[in-house]
Design brief:
It is built from eight helices and 13 strands. By secondary structure, it is α/β, with parallel strands linked by helices. It is globular. The longest helix has 19 residues. Helix content is about 25%, strand content about 20%. It has a single domain, classed as Vaccinia Virus protein VP39 (Rossmann fold, 3-Layer(aba) Sandwich). Bound molecules: zinc ion. Zinc ion binds next to loops.
Length: about 300
């Protein structure tokens, strides 16, 4: 045997930074996994969780193939999304304020825009475009006056540029975040901004409940970030982090905040005692387990 040769398993490289990663146990999915309301056969996909000590990315392995997930989104029934979500509950006001403050012009693209509810909220003084794989949601967005340009970033014409590109509840679905960020940069106008909302696995409830955490237990969520990962992605793509806040996915009533926190704490403690390890934790939507941030595109410092 050669000196230094290890007979252990091959290191698993990080899908973002290619550094070696560490095991973080088995993933936890419900008994009847669904993606956007469509049943999905996971088989051996998304069986294990791994963590990258270098860039902070947490990811499921092996990934569910993009084609499988896109087929689920495309077949998703129209009632899977709220037709008119409450704009205050969904923080549309905060997102709109960030765009108003930082975008150098009025051209906005929402990636994964669903039925166009956020773009509709922005108002017609914006030149509004969307990308959405669900045919039914895209049809509603078109009816709302949104210019639908395709399903994913790859469908955009090469020369189209935007002053603001949004990815709300999108980044956690990606299997190649770096390619996605490169694509975003390609389509940002000079001085343009990228505005995103995604989960933050540094949230304390997540650390308490581990892989059973509600956000990690959704089968379509494949990669998870923390602030360090976003900073890594920004550096890699010559972008600049100009706004960042830890927040919850949506605003909820105080009674719901207390109820979910108690329920989440009990589940986390049970899990720590070795109970309910294979059961996804109950939803904890008011938790401050998301990041809302703005990155300025490359070449515009
Ligand atoms: Zn990494």
């Amino acid at each position: 045997m050669k000196r230094g040769f290890s007979s252990g398993p091959l290191p698993v490289p990080c899908p973002l930074c290619a550094e070696p990663t560490q095991p973080r146990g088995e993933t936890v999915h419900g008994p009847d996994p669904r993606v956007a309301g469509v049943p999905i056969e996971l088989g051996s996909h998304a069986a294990a969780m791994r963590a990258c000590p270098s860039c902070g990315l947490l990811f499921k392995r092996p990934f569910v193939p993009d084609e499988t997930l896109l087929a689920c989104y495309a077949a998703s029934p129209g009632d899977n999304w709220e037709h008119d979500p409450d704009p205050i509950k969904r923080r549309f006001d905060q997102i709109a304020a960030l765009i108003e403050k930082h975008a150098p012009g009025r051209r906005v693209l929402d990636i994964g825009c669903s039925n166009g509810a956020l773009l509709k909220h922005l108002g017609s003084n914006w030149e509004r475009s969307g990308l959405e794989p669900s045919a039914e949601a895209a049809r509603v967005a078109t009816e709302r006056g949104i210019s639908m340009l395709g399903a994913t970033l790859g469908d955009l014409p090469a020369d189209v540029r935007f002053d603001a590109i949004l990815a709300i509840d999108v980044l956690e679905h990606l299997t190649d975040p770096d390619a996605f960020f490169r694509g975003v940069c390609t389509h940002l106008a000079p001085g343009g901004v990228f505005v995103a909302l995604t989960g933050d696995h540094d949230a304390w409830g997540w650390r308490l409940q581990g892989n059973a955490y509600w956000y990690a237990a959704l089968p379509e969520h494949q990669v998870f970030y923390c602030r360090r990962t976003i900073e890594h992605l920004a550096r890699r793509n010559a972008m600049q982090l100009i706004a960042y806040r830890r927040t919850s996915h949506a605003r909820h009533k105080p009674t719901r905040v207390v109820r979910d926190a108690l329920r989440g704490l009990i589940h986390g403690l049970m899990r720590r005692m070795g109970l309910a390890r294979r059961t996804p934790a109950p939803g904890w939507l008011p938790a401050r387990d998301h990041m809302l941030f703005v990155l300025r595109g490359p070449g515009s410092a």
